[in-house]
Structures are given as C-alpha cells and as structure tokens.
C-alpha cells in the first residue's frame, strides 16, 4: 500500500570545502498514515514520530538497494517500537504497548522503554537482492540515552565511528528532524576537501553543531525546511541537492504472513486452529487482514522451504 505524499520532503546538503553533510526531513502525510490505524498515548506517539524522522535521515545515506529497520525492545510499558525505511524512502512503523498500563503524557524515553535497564536498540540493514546465504547485517546495543536523538548518536559513534548529531521532534501532525554528520577525510590529492586542514574542518563541524543546537523543538516542528536552513546556516557556503520524498508503504504480503506462521511451528499453528477454527491475522503496520484456514495452514508446511522474518509477528485473532 502506498500513498502519494509530495509534501513529505528530505533535503540533503553539504558544507563546501569541509567533510560535513546535513539533512532536513519533514514527514506529515506519511506520519498521519502511520497513526491512522492505532491510538497511541501521546508520549509513545512522540517517541515513535522521532524514530520515523531518524530512520528517514539514516536511510537517505544507504549505499545499497534495501531497507533499514530500527527497533527498540523495551522492558517498560512500551514493549516494542519498529520503523522500516527503504532506499526509496518508503516507510512504515508500529508500536506495541503493554495491555492495561497507564502511560503519562510526559513520560520520558527511559520511563516508556527502559525502567529496568534491559532495553535493546537494534538496527538491521536488509539488502533487497541478497546473495545466496547472505544474512542481513544487524547491530544490537543497550538502549544508551535519555532521548531518541542521543540513542542514535551513541549507536553511530560506537558502530560506524561517525560523529553524528540529530535534532528530532514530532507531534500529531508532523515528524521532523535535522542530521549533521562529520565524514572521514578523503585521501585524494586533488580533492577539494583534502585541501582544507583538519583544524578548519573541525572548526566547520563545531560551528555547524553550535548553530544547529540553537534550534528549539517548537521551532523545528513549526518551521519549513527552507526557512530553517536559511535561519541556521545563512553565513555558511553549502550545496543543496534535489529533494527526495518519503511516503508510506507497507510491504506485507500473504506469503510473508505465511512465513511468520511457519516460524511458529506446525504444532503451535495446529493448536491454534483446533481452538479457533481459522487464523485471522492483521498486519500491525497497515491493518490489512489475512485469513488462513486448516487447508491453507497445511499447505504452509509442505516441503522444507526456509523462512526468514525480520519483523515481529502480527496479532493473531479469531
């Protein structure tokens, strides 16, 4: 399922003569599409929206045809957050909140996901065209940070050795973000970036971060990308690239749902069929309904076709 969301924009830019790049993202139609099928508490909505902006910012720099999947497995009232964004900026996201819990409107990231200190942050890079036997790359680290931006900054520094700074904000209407990244120095003798001293590059990086750090959350939420870029970096020489446009897209299929059932195992599936008569499964991301009766399920276990499911199982209901 896709929607045409031309007002959703990701804008890349680079500082001339310095190995510093940046991106702004504004996601409104896609973000509202994600929220349509769920009623999340305000605090959960804020964190998920920030994660949506972050996934788009990171996905825009993927060097392969595939997707980035960001997950937080929590030990608090929020058990799971998942955002998926592919190299074409097609996105989907969902959250799992424990039943019967009350979530304060101003609950912090730690209160939502990590009160016991056991939460994990996972980034999976999943190529669309895998070689035989190739597995997706997956990095799993403790949830390190008091907000979503800090969690990702710490992950990028630890896993990718890249200085990365993010500013994220989300409300009911829009998910927005700014990313700055200090890139490794180039080795080519004729490269313009190489002609700038490391000290000058560091000065440019520190100045860019200082300017971006003046950005208030309310300003990020209420101001368009062009205005923000002019306001923050009007004294800098930057190059701006053609914008890209995120959009909502759910990649669920009957085959993938069948693979999920196969992962549960025949004994568990047969037990559920005996109790329910048929399995009715709704996609957590888009709400699409899939039904499997006894004949459908029997066909799933014919042969030994390997299965692979990166994302959590959807709810199974009668």
UniProtKB/TrEMBL annotation:
GO molecular function: protein folding chaperone; unfolded protein binding
Gene Ontology terms describing biological process: protein refolding
Maturation and modification: Under oxidizing conditions two disulfide bonds are formed involving the reactive cysteines. Under reducing conditions zinc is bound to the reactive cysteines and the protein is inactive.
UniProt-annotated location(s): Cytoplasm
GO cellular component labels: cytoplasm
Disulfide bonds listed in the record: 250-252, 283-286
Keywords: Chaperone, Cytoplasm, Disulfide bond, Redox-active center, Zinc
Major site of localization recorded for this protein: cytoplasm
Listed Pfam families: HSP33
Residues in the signal sequence: none
PANTHER family: 33 KDA CHAPERONIN
Family: Belongs to the HSP33 family.
Described purpose of this protein according to its UniProt entry: Redox regulated molecular chaperone. Protects both thermally unfolding and oxidatively damaged proteins from irreversible aggregation. Plays an important role in the bacterial defense system toward oxidative stress.
HAMAP family tied to this protein: HslO (MF_00117)
Name of the featured protein: 33 kDa chaperonin
Organism this protein belongs to: Massilia atriviolacea
